[in-house]
Amino acid sequence: MDQQLIEKVMKQVSDELAATKTASASASSTAPACDACCGDSVGLTEFVGTAIGDTIGLVIASVDPMLTDVMKLGNYRSIGIIGGRTGAGPQIMAVDEAVKATNTQVISVELPRDTKGGAGHGSLIIIGAEDVSDARRAVEIALNVLPKYFGDVYGNEAGHLEFQYTARASYCLEKAMGATRGRAWGMTCAGPAAIGAILADTAVKAANVEVIGYSSPGNGGTSYSNECILTFTGDSGAVRQAVRAAIEVGKKLLGSLGGEPESTTTPYI
């Protein structure tokens, strides 16, 4: 009897442990994509969270009056800040979604040269809001959707490829990339720049699209990074087709310099 009782107790404990692990895994799967969405984690009210690409999200409830002019904030006093060491397109796309969903406005987008990103850029994006809660919400949304837009960023030891697409551009893409709000928008980018030049030609030959801008190391728009970037618009299907054609060619060309280029997260285009 004693042995039977021991076995019964052990089985009950085992079942309870299994249930605990299942509940824990379920909670993890529904957790937000950003690493932290609460200022308590670092003890600062300005801190919102972090995400892929060494990206940090911050807010300032009331910017000091001595800084509003030099930061070119206009009438805004509450701001959200998204900054990353690696990636520029993904952060711009993420903020584009964030301003669609909140009562906020993109104040500025800067793309600094950052050697941690290899041949590419970092990013600094300022979001203005009448209320700090709106700025915080926009930053949270951007951090949570950011991993999606790293999905079509591919890399190997020789360089990187970046592709972006949206069926409906909004304020951040308008300010940063010259997109037309409400229209489809696409981008091809590669470092080394030589590959980027081929991708630009591939994209415009693959579908009926309209070029918005072309940037190369000495031609503006790249902070002298070793990249060529093409942005374009058109019918949603045509823009997607152009981007997909460039992805196929880009992976082959970059692969010739090293290993097979791998997606940073999960491709979405």
Automatic annotation (TrEMBL):
Which keywords annotate this record? Answer: Bacterial microcompartment
The GO terms this record gives for MF are: structural molecule activity
Q: Does the keyword Membrane apply?
A: no
Query: Which locations, inside or outside the cell, does it occupy?
Result: Bacterial microcompartment
Please indicate if the UniProt record lists Transport as a keyword: no
Q: Which Gene3D superfamilies does UniProt cross-reference here?
A: 3.30.70.1710
Every copy of the BMC circularly permuted domain together lies at 46-158
Q: Tell me a GO cellular component.
A: bacterial microcompartment
Residues annotated as transmembrane: none
InterPro entries, alphabetized: BMC_CP, BMC_dom, CcmK-like_sf, EutL_PduB, PduB
The protein in question is named Microcompartment protein PduB
Q: Which organism is it from?
A: Eubacterium oxidoreducens
